[in-house]
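Input/output pair, single chain:
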Amino acid sequence: MSEFLQKIADHREAILLGEIGALLHMFGKYSSEFLQANSLEGGAEDSHQNLKHLTELEPCLRDKGLQGKLRFTLSGREEGLNEDFTDFITKYSKRQADSALLKLFNTCHRMTSADEKGVVRRKQSKVDMWITTPFGYRVQKIDLDEIDSARAKMDCDLAKLFASFLQGTLDIDGLHDQVVTILQKGMSKTLGETRQPANDVTLWAQSHGVASLYKPVLAALAIGLDPCPRKPDDELDYSNLRWRLFGVGWNGLGFVQRGRRPGDILKRRDIVNVILKEVEQLLEVAYPIGNLFYADLNGAFITFPGIDDDKALELVRQITRQLAQTVRQESDNELWPFFTLSRPRRTLTTITREIDVRDRLASIPRIATFLRMEKDTGPPEEHFLEHSPYLEAPRSGEDICPVCQFRNKREFRIVNNVGRGDEVCSVCRDRRSNRQKDWHDKRHGQTIWVNEVADENGRIALLTLRFDLSRWLSGEWQTTTWSQTLEEWARGERLVSAEGQVVKGLKELTSQGRIQLSSDNLYASALSLAEWVLNNPTRTERKAVLEAFLEKGGGEYELAQITGLLGDVQGLYGACDAQSLLKFYFTQHPSPPRLMRIWEETEAFLDIWLKCLEADVFAACPQRLCFKPVSQVPGVQPRRTYRITVPGLRPGTMTVVTLTEQEFLTIDSLDKFEFTSGEERLQGLAAVQAALTQAPIESWQDDDTGQPLPDIRQSVAVEPSSFGAEPYLPFITVARSPVFCQVLMPATNRASLGLRKLLSLIDERFGKVRGKLPLHVGLLVAGRKFPLYALIEAGQQVLSDPVVQAGSLQHPWWDTTAHAADAFYGSYPTEEPASQGGHVLTGLVPVNAAQSFWLTPGYFDFDFLGSTADGHRLVYEDDERGHPIRPAVAYGHLRPRPLPLHRLSDLFDVWDSLVSSAGLGKTQRHQLAEGLATKLEEWKVLEQQEVSPVLHQFSKTLLRRSFDNRWTALSSDQRCLLEHAAGDGLLLEALELFQHVLKEG
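Output:
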């Protein structure tokens, strides 16, 4: 084993115990006493550092044997805790830290919770205390009556685990795994900071964020390196810790997309998830250098020691061999891993750029195993690590597997109506078989058969959802969320006394005219304070001015803290100017736990939407039919699929899968089948059952090759008493990550209902950040025989162009009345953000419909793919206003696609009006669409300003003629909506989407 890895392995127990100490250090906040002390009513003492909250666990934490396990060498001297493990709880603050380990730990704590203390925030009532999401949605109410009993049980469970560990009956892996499980489950239900709007960070997220920073620090100590720079006097500069992000990347999206069948795709998705878990286990437990910070289908990012470039490179070289072996082994050499390492920084907002770099590298086919490393200074470097697997050329009688496009297989040929050779390689065949076995064990869930997904028209829809979190993970949008308002700050007791006078610490500076405080211009007053701090190096006076930004009881600064605090500002916003200092005190910070909560919430949103599909959209599940032949069918094989022909059953063959030699199951959408029995016309499952009862199966074909089974000489009758029906969910979750989701579902009705549920969920959970959180949605529809890999690839291409990520100045599209009254989330920027550091406070004003704001909307696009070449239409560019357009879709001068996502609700309203009781029939709708499209095509040679007024009048006339006397039966709102939609292309888009793509109505 290499030197660095050996040292980390030797200190593995100590590192994991240090992480556990970090996870426990705020355990006392899991108490009704803490919550009440920080509630609006008060009436209790904040004693979260008191060990009374750990009555069962305290004896274990005081065990000297446990203390002795936490030892590291620093500056040639052994370092540990001065007393025992309770030091993590009772001494984690800066003034109490009495050992090097605690001083380092304090910095990690401060870097995760610096914005949770010291500023004027709104307290919550103890009877109405909520955990919110980073987007302002109240997601969970805290019940103070249940907190103490839950904590007592956790205390007891933890004590048993520690006792077993100290007795030697539980190893460090078991202790770490079970402690993390217990704490995550419990501490996710309460808060470390109860006041608004900091109540978006749970106690677990805050504690885990501290642990994720402390762990790389301990790893650096284990290697024998300084975890932070040294001062001129050779003392460690504890407040100047830095961290890197280590990325393990691969082309997971491409890997999933190569599957030819849903079973292939789902198995590949499972493989990626297994690899992610193994990477996490290797880097968090086996060689604990950090914690998982972010993961998706294309890889993972881990917190990493902020050590010097050469040492960081050496550590990466030593650990990547095992990581590369893990990725290749689990993927059978189909995933080709590479690695990235960020520059050491004091914040982790570099994750946005790291993800972008990773995804660009992942798109390179057959990439070698190398490291892209950002040095502390200078341009990035690329370091070759090892060769990728050898690609063996096919030999005589072999070709390339069409699924993996990687391994060789025997050529497949049809000889005398019998298939010979292999359709796919042995690895892909085994994956497909294993996935079918997994499906067989839980058949009532999502299907894995495209035929069961297809609607009665034989069409399938692929919905692709893509969040753009780049401006959230970079911290940009946090600079538009107030952490304290200027008005509340001005009323704070650290600035103005109860008598309305400037407090003593600022009075002299004010009287001398060195700072200007004015009740008429609060922003100018705050700016005056910030500019004075930056222009005057005297630390004593700086201390008094900086403390004016804090609330009473919010703490005081030590003189030694001032330099580090300004360094924090520099790290967060890329500069330490007056604007950055104000953002530090008045807006939310992109702290590690808040960044984690951001992508956790988008992941939770996607999960909730998928559950809505299951519970609401597919509440009435279709059914499949199980049956048994009266005699054994020769030549069939278990878990193989066949197409059978039953006389009189329309529209043709039906697909079945072999469960056993004597049992078959339909895997087709039965709604499309019809059968006439006497004078009765049957449909769906009843039609299939009647057909199988009255007529024998006359032919069997292999579903893969289309060749008839050679050993079947006569028709096969079905046992009438063998029928059994079972429900299933006719949709397939193809891919899901924190920011990306693809779902196959029936095109007609179900797809549009799924979109309606999506819009409702967006309004509910993201209402306070409208225009700030882009969710892009693509809908592609194709026939069920369309190549699945091509459909998924096209779905990945929809709205993935950088042009849709751009923001622009535009008027809000929602009712802003209530939104503007929100003190924390109701302000929006009136200008573009700076190149770095986000938005400035002067540009933030309460949102209103009469003013333009800088917004980043989501978009919606759709299309029907008749051939694989149609995917080339999914190309975007920006128009003269900077808005994205798709050149392939145009009605004369109108380029309506992609639509802003919020206009999708208008699209539904237009369609609902067209098909309402006073609406148009199918033929009339077709005529209306043709009339508008034809006229727009004729007018496209004219200038747009000439067309617009004529088009408006023409569309009104055409609409009234189409509706005839039913026009007046529509409400005035419906008439206005239809006339406006006809003029801006939305009417044509509604007719195209619902009549031609989805075929509704």
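Residues 183 and 267 are 32 Å apart (CA to CA). The two ends are 67 Å apart (CA to CA).
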